[in-house]
């Protein structure tokens, strides 16, 4: 069958050492750090037994923004329809294999992980807050164009002691966010297990793992550096619309 329109370009993320990662889906985890849950006015669990269910939402695959070899810094245009664009620095997990059918066991989750990176879950906070106040879905606050800047991906075999590493975001040289991955409410195997109850996980999926406290506004002209300690950094700038 002949396509009636040109095939849209697939979003791809560069991988350290060569090659690219074609993006199929982007899953995001909400309220996965207790301090961030509290700063957003939500209850934070005191123990694993009180965690309940993780909060998931999706972004379109083409929301990805990456740099290139010639210009590694990313350029993110300030989005329309908002006056309150917020940053949320996050660990990014890239899946390199399809999950088997059925629910994925946490102890098998690591076999799916191809690589790790660091990214920003950009949020139109005013649109999200207005939708939440009315009890409506808040997709427009999360799933917009250029809302998922992400670093190059680092093969999982090169990333050791992940839980002991930290996430940091600097804006214009000032530290805005900093948190240890040890403080994740649900770690990577647990999140992949929970996602597999709802979706068929496939190679090409990215998972944004949630953000620590300190989220705040970004303005045109702001320069940012997001880092996964000792592994990778993402440098970028917010540009005029």
Protein architecture, described:
There is one protein chain. The N and C termini lie far apart (38 Å). This protein has helices spanning 34-39, 125-133, 139-142, 188-196; strands spanning 12-14, 20-22, 25-30, 55-59, 64-65, 74-77, 85-87, 89-95, 113-120, 123-124, 148-149, 154-155, 166-171, 174-180, 205-208, 216-217, 223-228, 232-239. A hairpin with a 3-residue loop joins strand 17 (223-228) and strand 18. The strands form 5 sheets. It has a 6-stranded mixed sheet, with helices on one face. The protein has one domain (15-239): Fumarylacetoacetase-like, C-terminal domain (Fumarylacetoacetate hydrolase, domain 2, Alpha-Beta Complex), CATH 3.90.850.10. By secondary structure, it is mainly beta.
Please sum up the structure shown.
With 241 residues, the protein is mostly beta strands. The chain is built from four helices and 18 strands.
Helix tally? 4
Query: Helix amount, in percent?
Result: 10-25%
Second-tier CATH architecture: Alpha-Beta Complex
CATH topological fold name? Fumarylacetoacetate hydrolase, domain 2
Please outline the major beta sheet.
6 strands, mixed
Level-1 CATH class name? Alpha Beta
* Class from secondary-structure proportions: mainly beta
Distance separating the two termini = 38 Å
Order of helices and strands: EEEHEEEEEEEHHEEEEHEEEE
Describe the global form.
globular
What value does the Rg take, in angstroms? Answer: 17 Å
The CATH homologous superfamily name equals: Fumarylacetoacetase-like, C-terminal domain
Poorly predicted regions: none
Widest beta sheet: strand line-up: 4-3-15-8-9-12
For the secondary structure, the number of strands is 18
Domain unit count: 1
Overall pLDDT, averaged?
A: 95
Give the DSSP E fraction (strand runs of 2 or more residues): 25-35%
């Amino acid at each position: 069958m002949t396509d009636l329109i040109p095939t849209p370009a697939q979003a791809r993320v560069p991988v350290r050492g060569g090659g690219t990662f074609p993006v199929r889906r982007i899953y995001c985890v909400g309220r996965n750090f207790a301090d961030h849950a509290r700063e957003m006015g939500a209850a934070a669990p005191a123990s694993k037994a009180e965690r309940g269910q993780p909060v998931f939402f999706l972004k379109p695959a083409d929301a990805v923004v990456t740099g290139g070899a010639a210009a590694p810094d990313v350029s993110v245009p300030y989005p329309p329809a908002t006056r309150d664009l917020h940053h949320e620095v996050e660990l990014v997990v890239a899946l390199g294999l399809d999950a088997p059918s059925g629910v994925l066991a946490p102890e098998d989750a690591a076999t799916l992980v191809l690589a790790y990176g660091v990214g920003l879950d950009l949020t139109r906070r005013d649109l999200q807050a207005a939708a939440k106040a009315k009890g409506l879905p808040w997709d427009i606050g999360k799933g917009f164009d250029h809302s998922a800047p992400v670093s190059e991906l680092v093969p999982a075999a090169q990333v050791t002691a992940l839980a002991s590493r930290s996430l940091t975001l600097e804006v214009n040289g000032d530290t805005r966010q900093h948190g240890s991955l040890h403080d994740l409410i649900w770690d990577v195997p647990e999140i992949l297990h929970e996602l597999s109850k709802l979706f068929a996980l496939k190679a090409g999926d990215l998972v944004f793992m949630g953000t620590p406290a300190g989220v705040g506004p970004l303005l045109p002209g702001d320069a940012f550096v997001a880092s996964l300690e000792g592994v990778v950094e993402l440098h970028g700038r917010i540009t005029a619309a």
